[in-house]
Amino acid sequence: MLRTGIATVAATLWLSGTAFAQQPAAATPPPPDFSRVEIKTTDLGDNMYMLEGQGGNITVAVAKDGIIMVDGQYAALHDKIKAAISTISNQPIKYLINTHFHGDHVGGNEPFAKDGATVVSEVNVKNRLAAGTTNGLTGVKTPPVSPAALPAKSYTGAFHIRLRGRVADLKHIENAHTDGDTYVWFKTANVLSTGDTFTNGRYPNIDFANGGNIKGMIAAADAYLRLTNAKTRIVPGHGPLADRAVLTEYRAMLVTARDRMAKLVKDGKSEDDVVAAKPFADLDAKWAPTELASKNFIRVVYHSLADKQDSERPSFRKLFRRS
Q1: Are 204 and 283 in contact (CB under 8 A)?
Q2: How many whole angstroms from its chain centre is CA 268?
Q3: φ, ψ dihedrals at 285, nearest 5°
């Protein structure tokens, strides 16, 4: 598990283009010093909280008989996260929801499950954690997790978690950040947890090698805009707490990126061609903290639109149904 975690941390940080931008692409950055990580807690009202540390943001929803937690960052931060939650409530963590399979969101699965939490995810998350994955940009392979780190409950389509005084509505967004994304809607609290389908103030990663696609990212933003209003607190996968206005700006960026890249792909441009063209140069000032982050976003959007997607190929069964 330690080697698995280090490989995942390295791949995640390489993709982010924030911590190790000056290193050559082939270099493998060292894992973070988790001993230096501090957990920041933001009160969202109505017994809802956002936790920030190292990795994906965490949402904590306190009910009368337990806690629902969305994402768990890294295993090495388990004790610090638990300590932060203990200052909020002494209720047990009953559910841990995985918004997708990347290690900076699911690393806490095993230790929190040992504490008694039921880990819940969309079925593709469980399948990818069990099989292991390959990063489409770096080629870094993440081996399968141990059985103890797999979600105990998986769902397809939609799922609901109910505790006394609290309901979490889980919904699968197909082929967005990955093929197993879940957003979590706490309707009565007016709080939305998006996972990495929405990242505040920076380009998102689109894991095209594992089902991600910019079209799905836009579809996710559309779904969120239908759910939310001006008072909704939105917990993004990364970045500060957001609202509907920020989400609207993020969606506009995605649409601009898709449209520009679609033209380049239609014109037959290669991946190297589009990277050299810098089609998102005017967007970079707001969304790309480094040149590496800019190039990575160009590449993932390119692959979203240029690679042939299995889902777009009609199967013989579908053809037979149409006849």
Answers
A1: no
A2: 31
A3: -60, -35
- Residue 289 tokens read as 């903290």
Q: Assess contact for 128 and 101: CB atoms under 8 A.
A: yes
Give residue-wise pLDDT tens across range 197-225: 999 999 999 999 999 999 999 999 999 99
**Helix locations, 119-160, DSSP H:** 123-131
Query: For residue range 17-47, what is the model confidence (pLDDT) as tens digits?
Result: 333 222 333 345 677 899 999 999 999 999 9
Closest CA to 167 of 148, 149, 145, 189: 189
For range 119-125, the mean pLDDT: 98
Q: How much is the average pLDDT of 47-69?
A: 97
Convert the pLDDT of each residue in 270-321 to its tens digit: 999 999 999 999 999 999 999 999 999 999 999 999 997 544 444 333 333 3
pLDDT tens string 95-105: 999 999 999 99
CB 217 within 8 A of CB 36: no
| Phi/psi at 277 (5° precision) | -75, -20
| Of 195, 163, 171, 227, the residue nearest 72 (C-alpha) | 195
Judge contact between 208 and 153, C-beta under 8 A: no
> Please, are residues 60 and 69 in contact by the beta-carbon 8 Å criterion?
yes
Calculate Rg over the CA atoms of the chain: 19
Task: Identify whether the C-beta of residue 195 lies closer than 8 Å to the C-beta of residue 105.
Answer: yes
Distance from chain centroid for Cα 227: 19
Least confident piece of the model among 92-96, 133-137, 179-183, 310-314: 310-314
* Percentages of the chain per state (helix, strand, coil), in multiples of 5: 40, 25, 35
Residue 81, Cβ neighbours under 10 Å: how many?
Answer: 23
Distance CA 52, CA 194 (A): 14
